[in-house]
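INPUT
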Amino acid sequence: MSPFLSVLTSVVAWVGAMLVVASVAVIGPARLRETWTDLRDRIWDARRVVALVCVVLLASAVGRPALLNVSRLFGIQVTAFIYGLEGGFVAWIQATFASPALTAYFSRVYVYGYAFLVAFPAIAYLALPRTADLRRLLVAYALNYGIGLVLYTLVFAHGPRNVMPDMVTPLLFTNQPDVILLASEVNENSNVFPSLHTSLSVTVGTFAVLTRDEYPRWTAVAVPLSLSVVVATMYLGIHWLTDVVAGFALAFGCVALAYRFVDPRDDAVASRSDAGGGRPEPGADD
Amino acid sequence: MTRPISRRAALAGLGLAAASAGCLGRTENIAGRDPHSQLTLEINATPADGDPNGIRIARQLEEHLTAVGIDVRLNTVGQTDLWRKVLVNQNFDLYVGQFVETEPFDSDALYGLTHSQFVAEPGWQNPFGLTEMPVDDLLERQRRAAGSDRSDAVDALQETVCDLQPFSVVAFPDALTAVQGARFEGWTQDRQPVSVTGLLGLDAVPDADAAGDGGSDGGNATGDDGNATADGGNATSSATASGADADGETGTALRLVTTDDRITENWNPIAAEYRRYGTFTGLLYDPLVRTDGESTVPWLAADWERPGANTVDVALRDARWHDGEPVTASDVAFTYRFLRDTSLGSVETSVPTPRFRGRSSLVEDERVLDDSTVRLTVPDVNETVAARALRVPILPEHVWSDRTDAATIGGFEFDFETTEAVVTNNPEPVGSGPLRFVEATAGESVVFERNPDHFLVRPAPDADAESSGETTDPRAGVPPRYHGKPAFDRLRVEVLPSDISAVESVVEGLADATVSNLGPQSVPRIGGSDDARLVNGRSAAFYHVGYNVRRSPLSNPRFRAVIARLIDKSAVVDEAFDGYARAAASPLAASPDAVPDSLAWTDGTDPVHPFFDDEGSLDVEAARTALRDIGYRFDSEGRLLSRAQ
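OUTPUT
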């Protein structure tokens, strides 16, 4: 497993560095200090959604192999349908735009940029005095993963690089073969519908737009970066346009649900006085 | 009670209305007809990660079928699911796949593949559903006839099969393998390197630790000498060669990488959907005889003879199962009985084996003569075919006799018409082969180790005494290059996500060879280091497009012949295989001197079903004309019409 560990270390190191830089540039030292002193209270305040995210991630990690078998045996096979629907769109993207510089850019965005994009908002919203945005974000993540897992099980499909290798080059893998090992740890090649890269990126991008008053700089970074991840999924031949469209729908749906489930009024560390009582947080724990 | 208005009801209403107009008969005559619609065909193939070549054939066919006016669904499924769909459930239109034998095979392989007696059985026996008496007759003839009579029968058989096209042979691939020359040498140059005989023929590079100088280039045919030292010195030589073995285990490990994870979860030699060529189960389970190049060598059998025209007497070597039980004649008799009906009569209809069916069907009866001799009744067949009957894996009776009951799920019996033996993953496999199972992590890796009790490694009884060494040598009849083999103590197969990462792994020295197929994107990566190189032996496991002959319009041989002409085999070889393949018309094209002139591939075109070629691309009009000529019709938009399916 040494190649796997080395690529993992590289990702962790790069993303960690990006997080540090972004924390200073976007959140600012003052807020970070404040967050540090108030950290325990805020995490306590968001404990339920943190637990929810952990449960979903754990269930995903544990259940995925079994669900994959269910998907293979009983899932709806939609590869042919998707391919019939959009044909060579992804091949057209590659044929029209592919260049070494873009390939290098999108490969990095897909791996490093995506990890950074998903990790940073958790820090940024933790640095806000009110935890509503943090809780919404985490609920949206949990929903993305949960619904994504259900769809992966129901739908069995392979991506464009697997269906038309004559026209779609697996650019990520030819460009950074090590990354394959990491990607396959995280993702099976039959889990393409919907694109979770797209849905999580768009979720982050949407939140970034909604919180533009707090973090205008983050909005300026997150929106182009999340759209880059979206394009990267197709440019690299991993996802169909259909997966991406479904990813957008999933993202918007999850953000909407997160806003519905997380009530901002019973919020803020100020309301901690009644934190002991069963503060209603409808739906989030369901 | 409200019900939605069906088409029939709507027409009934119309008819009623029309009746008043006095033309009921005419409306009925129209409404009673089912409308035509566009023909839909589904092509099944494995995704590029599983096999980079097959999907490219499927893609070309999909494009050409679409151009002609057929609605094509290109469906990708995993390798297990593809064979389950095609071989077990027979629920497919077309598929793209590979034949299961990598060594050049005898024409009798077509018996299992195309004989109509197997039409109702799941497995590799007649998956197409072909029922043609001329084919059956020729298959029987090539079993009986000998000499030039047999050649004539084989020629006629190939011509008939080519005419009828139950499957279209596309190309014979080169068995592309990336190998790391630093630790093992003797990789087969002309055949599939990762095969039973290929792996057993390997030699450890002496003093592998000092292999940094990259001096070991060739590796061809070094296997013939050096076996004399292999006997006694194994323990010491392997200890020095442990080299870069990441496992930290003692001894030499041969490390293979593949994209095919089936061997990490299933070790059942007769499970058709889990076996590709059966290489690793072939190392776990010994057959009575093996083919080695052109010759047939006695393996688990010490010797065999034909006392009469209808019988073969097989004398067994002294051998033990991996659990220590002796291999006896009754195990052999059991195996043939079992392959004929894996339920041994306990289920109402017999459940024959889904693999090895053609050759095991040769044996009609078996009788144990003594502990180590068995008499098989093989009615009236020539020598070649009789020897083929001996090439099935011999199974231990004490393990498999418990698996003859109908398969159940959670104790409940469903009507699957199969037995536990067919569906078991065969955990902790007990064979008698040169390798035995150690451990596996499903989806990740599997480890085998050398069987120290195997006749290949058992030292010959000291030739000091009276008995002449010839008869008591435990390996008598086995070519010397297999003596003392395998040259590794452990065999580790690791699963990687794609052919590219498999090649990278070999180039970086983390693995010794790739197992699964390499595509045009991974091959150029070999050569990044001094010791990694490409070995391209020839494989007989031809790529083909299989048709489900049970389904209209694929049931029409003329229709299949037109589809065959939509495959541009030369372009497939150039583009999908990057030239590492040979186009062919006959399934026997890899077998020496088997193909008649009428089927020889010459001038880059198929001798029987030439591609509708229009300067390199498909001549759509010619293809449509051919379809019209055999009775098919198109609508105004150029769609090929058929009855609603």
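end of record. Strands of chain A lie at 76-77, 155-156.
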